Amino acid sequence: MVTRAAIFAFLFLIAVSDATAQQKRQVVVGSKAFTESVLLGEIAAGLIRAGGTATNHRKQLGGTRILWNALVRGDIDLYPEYTGTISRELFAGKKFGDPAEMKLVLAGHGIGMTDPIGFNNTYAIAMKPERAQQLGVATISDLARHPSLRFGFSNEFMDRGDGWPALQKAYGLPHRNVRGLDHDLAYRAITGGDLDAVDAYSTDAEIAYYGLRLLKDDRAYFPAYDAVILYRLALEKAAPEAVRTLRRLEGTIDAAAMSALNRTVKIGGKTEASVAAAFLEERFSVAADSAAEAVSSRIAARTAEHLVLVGISLAAAILIALPLGIIAARKPRAGQLVLGLTGIAQTVPGLALLVFMIPVFGIGAKPAIAALFVYSLLPIVRNTHAGVVGISPSLAESATALGLSPAGRLLHIELPLALPSILAGIKTAAVINIGTATLGALIGAGGYGQPILTGIRLDDMALILEGAVPAALLALGAQAAFELAERGLLPRPLRSRRH
Questions:
Q1: What percent of the chain stands above pLDDT 70?
Q2: How confident is the model at residue 492 (pLDDT cuts 50, 70, 90)?
Q3: CB 128 within 8 A of CB 213
């Protein structure tokens, strides 16, 4: 029974999430979780769309590996990347003699690469000029003389092949006070005096805005990071016009122009869509739709996405967790195993669990739903178990004396008596789901996490509240709805006893 229910639940989960996400065939553009990548994604999507091919831009999907794996799997069709990242991170340890060799290696994975867009966005180490002058630091090598300096690097830079571990080894840096944090937050931390040095992208708008100094890479550690577009070679047959259109971007944006575009978004407060549209009109005489979506429309769309994530995962969890909780109550040995496994699953950090689901379900709503399903199990299983076990033995004996079968006793005696505890578990799972579902935006699942992530990246409190406030209200609404459901579902004698 449990096995059939599990199979049904997962088929239901996949079918419904596919139905909500399916659209007519589009070219799917991906972008990483930083402004320049989103901008380049918007520019590429707008140019392809103007060429007559439908596009869907899945913004800020995470870091390099998530985007690369999504491209290889076919979850997305193209995304902006950098040659230095390809050589040092995606194919670490492989020496590329020239771009032609890089294209040949990529082709072996079914991936094509455009020629450079026109700018080199290399990594750099940035400091406040007054702090650098005070310490006599002008190069990265000079940092070795000040081992007590506080470093703050983007989380991806902390572990990638061309990031901190390799940089530390190349320059013999003895520093231990090194922390990982969001790239945009690092800039605010260094200007506030909480950090002494951060990693930077050379086209970041914040470098000039905050007046930071880039230290000279005196050992030429960082390679060139020429911006390119990676795309699936299958796209050349499926949408050849889209590939031809992409190549129009080659050599069209230099470093100064890219910095200006970034600055218009990060400092000027414009949206990536509007900035990309203005660029396309100026550079290619392409009219792109940049009309800002009304706040109410954005919230409505995010609410629908969030309800899909929470509703499907919670429904599937109820189908599985209820029988598991009953089995745990009826069979103590099996119960310990069930409670132990669901408890262990609950301890896995939410972001890690989302990433674990990507190889199975790809990016988008499905891995988020699967992760939320796992998180919903423990409260429902535990409360179902507690509700059934907590029934007075005398009541169970009376039911047996009346001639009720085990199934009849469960249906007419045990479940009604355990219902308050079961509903409390479902209510807890629902509230947890609503909050945790905001992480789904990191892998393209949408929901209330989308404006929160964008708001953090752009330092826009209004955008953060646009996601946080509706999420809080939805959680309160869910709690109130389950309170009403409990009053309606409980038998009158039990209701009067509880209230």
A1: 90
A2: low
A3: yes
The position carrying tokens 């080199």 is: 120
Query: The tokens 């193209």 sit on which residue?
Result: 78
Name the strands in the sheet holding 151-154, side by side, starting at the edge strand that comes first in the sequence.
178-181, 151-154, 197-201, 123-127, 213-214
Match 């355990």 to its residue by tokens: 418
Q: Where are the beta strands (DSSP E) in 114-190?
A: 123-127, 151-154, 178-181
Locate 89 and state its tokens: 């991170």
pLDDT in tens, 2-34: 445 555 555 555 555 554 444 446 899 999 988
124, 157 contact by CB (below 8 A)? no
| Residue 340 DSSP class | H
Is this structure's pTM higher than 0.70? yes
CB-CB contact of 91 with 230 (8 Å): no
- What is the Cβ-side half-sphere exposure of residue 172, based on CA atoms within 13 angstroms? 5
Query: From CA 477, how far away is CA 310, in angstroms rounded?
Result: 13
Helix (H) or strand (E) holding 201: strand 197-201
Kindly report, residue by residue over 190-242, the tens digit of the pLDDT: 999 999 999 999 999 999 999 999 999 999 999 999 999 999 999 999 999 99
Q: Name every residue whose Cβ is closer than 8 Å to that of residue 351 and which is 6 or more positions away in sequence.
A: 439, 442
Nearest to 204 by CA among 113, 131, 117, 125: 125
How do 27-30 and 55-58 pair as beta strands? parallel
124 neighbors 196 (Cβ within 8 angstroms): no
CA terminus-to-terminus distance, the chain: 36
Burial of residue 402, with CB atoms counted within 10 A of its CB: 0-12 exposed, 13-18 middle, 19 or more buried:
exposed
Tokens for 202? 């050379």
Tell me the one-letter amino acid at 406: P
Strand partners, 154: 181
Q: How would you classify residue 246: left for phi > 0, otherwise alpha for psi between -120 and 50, otherwise beta?
A: alpha
Nearest to 36 by CA among 253, 292, 278: 253
Task: Please give the structure tokens belonging to residue 83.
Answer: 């040659």
Report the candidate in 417, 133, 32 with the shortest Cα–Cα distance to residue 42.
32
pLDDT of residue 237: 93
